[in-house]
Amino acid sequence: MMYLYFYEVFYGGAGMLLKQIRYFVMVVECNSFTEAAECNYISQSAISQQIKALEDELGVKLLQRWKRRFRLTEAGEYMYIHGKELLAQADMLREEVIKIGKSASMEHIVIGYLKLYIGRELQTAISSFCRQYPEVIVDVNAAGHEELYKGLLNGRYDFILNDTHPKNNDNFEYKSVRESEIFIDVPIKSQWGDKEFVNVSENMRLPCIIVAGSGQRSNEAAFYNTLFDKKEAELIFASDWAEARMLAAAGKGFLLVENDSSIFAPADGTKRLPFYKNSKQVKLRYYLVWRKGNDDKYKKYLAETVLKEFAGK
């Protein structure tokens, strides 16, 4: 808003230049026309002329001069404070325009991954790829099951790491990259605090804590209803893992985690237990999925790097 205000006032027919404002700010900060001129590699008379032109354009005095000294008028103080803001906004605008212009000509790869995934393989693979090809921009986004699948179909994602893959679709390729056993972090003082494992068929008096964005919650609820064999499982949604762990530590519910060697240990006050269904521990199989027939060398290399990282090679 401040930038637009100054733009309308100073450019709406007034013809004022940012360069004149920059000279004025420099004079004030150097407290000297001579030093400001030297910093800008122009003569003292030239910078004095620019400041006078600025005052003439506005029709007000910005500086009161006597001998070789000056002080700011009230209008000058206002110009100095808000002129600096305008210059900062202009510099930011310039940098963003250049950044966007450069990035538009660069190769982009977008990867979506399941929010339940907390391993290091994908992170390590992306880091390795970016070191090899710094000219490629890699964007990464965590999402829910259904959002990942839809994003792959509509072209939003070049790759997804999900626990499902497109069935009967000749447009995509996929590879199984890992199978993880599922555990749950439960409050020690809960009904399961003294158990060795928890079966999904047990009467769950605690809700399940799910990491999901506001736009993903209905689809995620359908997935967990199926997992728990319920029409409407009791769920609590958290926006990220930090919030989810806080809720579990506070005894608000239990938290599904990938495996017992996850990046983070159980939070204080919680216990990690194997999660069973039909007498077997629940497992999650991850797939890397991408579009067929893409001969882009960068995407090929990234797919190879991710697959090798998951294979431990």
Word description of this protein:
The protein is α/β, with parallel strands linked by helices and 313 residues long. It is 42% helix and 24% strand. It has ten helices and 14 strands. Strands 7, 8, 9, 10, 11, 12 and 13 form a seven-stranded mixed beta sheet that branches. The chain has a five-stranded mixed beta sheet with strand order 4-3-5-14-6. Strand 9, helix 8 and strand 10 form a beta-alpha-beta unit. Helix 2 crosses helix 3 and helix 6 runs antiparallel to helix 10.
Oligomer: single chain
Question: What would the average pLDDT be, to the nearest integer?
Answer: 82
Could you give the order of the helices and strands?
Answer: HHHHEEHEHEHEEEEEHEHEEEEH
What is the molecular shape?
A: elongated
Strand content: 15-25%
Major sheet summary line: 7 strands, mixed
**From the helix content, strand content and strand pairing, which structural class follows?**
alpha/beta
Indicate the percent of residues in helices: 40-55%
Attribute tags:
313 residues, alpha/beta, seven-stranded mixed beta sheet, five-stranded mixed beta sheet, 10 helices, 14 strands, elongated, disordered N terminus
Describe the secondary-structure layout.
Blueprint: H1 2-11, H2 18-30, H3 33-39, H4 44-58, E1 63-66, E2 69-72, H5 74-104, E3 107-114, H6 121-132, E4 136-143, H7 145-153, E5 159-162, E6 172-181, E7 183-187, E8 198-199, E9 208-211, H8 217-227, E10 235-238, H9 241-249, E11 254-257, E12 270-277, E13 280-281, E14 283-291, H10 297-311
Parallel strand pairs: 3-4, 3-5, 8-12, 9-10, 9-11
Antiparallel strand pairs: 1-2, 5-14, 6-14, 7-11, 7-12, 12-13
